[in-house]
Amino acid sequence: MLRDALGKTFRFLGYTVQYGCIAHCAFEYLGGIVVCSGPSMEPTIQNSDIVFSENLSRHFYCIRKGDIVIVKSPNDPKSNICKRVIGLEGDKVCTSNPSDFLKSHSYVPKGHVWLEGDNLRNSTDSRCYGPVPYGLIRGRICFKIWPLNDFGFLRASPNGHRFLDD
């Protein structure tokens, strides 16, 4: 009887470890569902919207300007942020706020990206903490799942004029 109980317990633990490893690999390398919070990506992503984030792009260095990404926060490594990629390494970006009279520009250093929220007036982004290392990118948002009336691929940036092609 004790032998049967131990056998069942070890089998259960073995299956738990196996399925836990499979789930970890799926969420780490394929993607997952993310609930977004905060106003920084409005109107594209509203507070409490649910999106699907795929993680393969970051592993294959396929992140492009205009993509919306999930990133480990440079200010708080325990939290993730959702921002739009405005510039890749070597790109010239506008580092000033839209309301600034004099515009300042800088180049994104090697191995970094420049991130901004779509709601420029209510976003803490690269204009505050500078370029973000590529290694902090967790995934790229593919499409919105919830609310259902907004289901589908995400719309283009309302701040397209901030993308510089110099």
Q: How does this model look, in words?
A:
The structure is a single chain. The protein has 166 residues and is α+β, with helices and mostly antiparallel strands. It has a single domain, classed as Umud Fragment, subunit A. It has three helices and ten strands. It has helices at residues 2-30, 56-59, 126-129, and strands at 31-35, 50-54, 68-72, 80-87, 92-94, 105-107, 112-116, 132-133, 137-146, 152-153. The strands form two sheets. Strands 1, 2, 3, 4, 7, 8, 9 and 10 form an eight-stranded antiparallel beta sheet that branches.
Summarize the structure.
Helix content is 22%, strand content 29%. With 166 residues, it is an alpha+beta fold. The chain has one domain: Umud Fragment, subunit A.
Descriptive keywords:
single chain, 166 residues, alpha+beta, Umud Fragment, subunit A, 8-stranded antiparallel β-sheet, 3 helices
Identify the overall geometry. elongated
CATH-defined architecture = Ribbon
Number of DSSP helical runs: 3
> How many strand elements?
10
User: Beta-strand level of the residues, as a percent range?
Assistant: 25-35%
Taking the sheet with the most strands, its summary is: 8 strands, antiparallel
What is the alpha-carbon Rg in Å? 20 Å
| Proportion in helices | 10-25%
Could you say how many structural domains there are in total? 1
CATH class: Mainly Beta
The fold-level CATH name is Umud Fragment, subunit A
Uncertain spans, ≥5 residues at pLDDT below 50? none
Distance between the termini: 76 Å
The CATH superfamily bears the name Umud Fragment, subunit A
Structural class: alpha+beta
Order of helices and strands: HEEHEEEEEHEEE
Average pLDDT, to the nearest integer? 83
Protein name: Mitochondrial inner membrane protease subunit
Subunit structure: Heterodimer of 2 subunits, IMMPL1 and IMMPL2.
Pfam families: Peptidase_S26
Family: Belongs to the peptidase S26 family. IMP1 subfamily.
